[in-house]
Amino acid sequence: MKNTLKVERAILNLTQDELAQEIGVSRQTINSIETNRYVPSTLLSLKLSKLFNKPVNDFFKLEDND
């Protein structure tokens, strides 16, 4: 899975820590998502969608090998 979370976070001018606090996770979780080491749960994806005011598919994309 590919994601644009880092770009979306930069658009809102949020640090990893600020984003983490907004959605109730650790900064390490945000870092792991951005570096594709962790696939977020449906609940976490929906929280990000709500915060960014965008559909989940706008920042998480399946790749051919997924």
Task: Give a description of the structure.
GO terms for molecular function: DNA binding. It comes from Aequorivita antarctica. The chain has 66 residues and is mostly helical. The protein has one domain: 434 Repressor (Amino-terminal Domain), CATH 1.10.260.40. It contains four helices and two strands. The protein has helices spanning 5-11, 16-23, 27-34, 42-52, and strands at residues 2-3, 60-61. Strands 1-2 form a two-stranded antiparallel ribbon. The N and C termini lie close together (6 Å). The mean pLDDT is 95.
Can you give me a brief rundown of this structure?
By secondary structure, the protein is mostly helical. The chain has helices spanning 5-11, 16-23, 27-34, 42-52, and strands at residues 2-3, 60-61. It starts with a strand and ends in a 5-residue tail after the last strand.
Intertermini distance: 6 Å
What letter string, H or E per element, gives the SSE order? Answer: EHHHHE
How would you describe the shape? globular
Query: What is the number of helical segments per DSSP (H or I, 4+ residues)?
Result: 4
Spans where pLDDT lies below 50 across 5 or more residues: none
Helix content: 40-55%
Strand order of the largest sheet: 1-2
Biggest sheet architecture: 2 strands, antiparallel
Q: What fraction of residues sit in β-strands?
A: 5-15%
CATH homologous superfamily designation: lambda repressor-like DNA-binding domains
In total, the number of strands is 2
Regarding quaternary structure, how should these chains be classified? single chain
**If you average the pLDDT, what whole number results?**
95
* CATH architectural category: Orthogonal Bundle
Under CATH, the topology can be stated as 434 Repressor (Amino-terminal Domain)
Structural class computed from helices and strand pairing: mainly alpha
Keywords: DNA-binding
InterPro entries: Cro/C1-type_HTH (IPR001387), Lambda_DNA-bd_dom_sf (IPR010982)
Domain HTH cro/C1-type: 5-59
Organism: Aequorivita antarctica
